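EI: anyone free to look at a 321-residue chain?
SC: sure, send it
EI:
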Amino acid sequence: MSNLDTRPDVVVCGGRRDVPAEPAHEVLPGRMVPLGESTMVRRLLPTLGRRLVGAWCFLDHYGPDDIADRPGMQVAPHPHTGLQTVSWLLAGTVAHRDSLGNEQVLAPGELGLMTAGHGIAHSEQSPVSHPALLHGAQLWVALPERYREVAPAFDHHPDLPVVTDRGLAATVLLGTLAGATSPGTTYSPLVGADLTLDAGADVRLPLEPDFEYAVLSASGSAEIDATALAPGALMYLGTDRGEVRLRTDAGARLLLLGGEPFDEQIVMWWNFVGRSGDEIVAYREEWNTGDRFGVVHGYQGDRLIAPALPAVPLKPRGRTR
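SC: here you go
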């Protein structure tokens, strides 16, 4: 998924300095931004107040949208470096194409995991014939220095482990949760899980004390440690937790993100993750001139062109504003 802002912010973040060494219940503000030709998304990471949760550096939540008579998601080919993209659908279908020649229609419950590494380009579209509803999340994971130049790859995992407990069904997207491990490849200690809570559920989910965590309410209202979380909101939970209590009256769908606080400083601009402003300038030039990222074949239309760089130098601004 692309950051389609025509004037994207420069985000430099990382390190443990701004990670609270204790549990928290911090509701983070999101903002509505356009994605492609006809989709609006809630951008929840990076956001005012927090830029990373572990290595998770980007989170868009979209829908549920009625696209029965609309084209749905239409995101033209665009580049990525230094990250992994995680595509997760709650309703609908999305067709992935990339410059390695991969083509895959993703459906709910299936993990689409793309490792950009040195550089890759891809497009995302609702198929011509598609379900009436579109609902999901798109996430990025920053790659640590040791792995950020790995060869690009795309993996499709249709079968993921599920943890169940008294009205809870937790599908593990990445990492390990309650002893269940996703087949998805990770390059730093992290976890991502889709939590379905039945009406009246009241459970305690085990967590890793060394991780920091956040929870997105994708649908329905829930209480996180007795603190209300409204649909579409993201709550940062801090660190030093052995468990989290989840409760709902009418049922809810949550997305749990966590990981060891990311030690490294990164620069994120448009669809690139790098380590310096000079790297970002070079990535932009290589994309606009046709180098490095390859071609997405099979997409009918023009690729995206990188927007203009900011007038000021790309400087660090820390994990939080």
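EI: The longest helix spans residues 277-289.
SC: 👍
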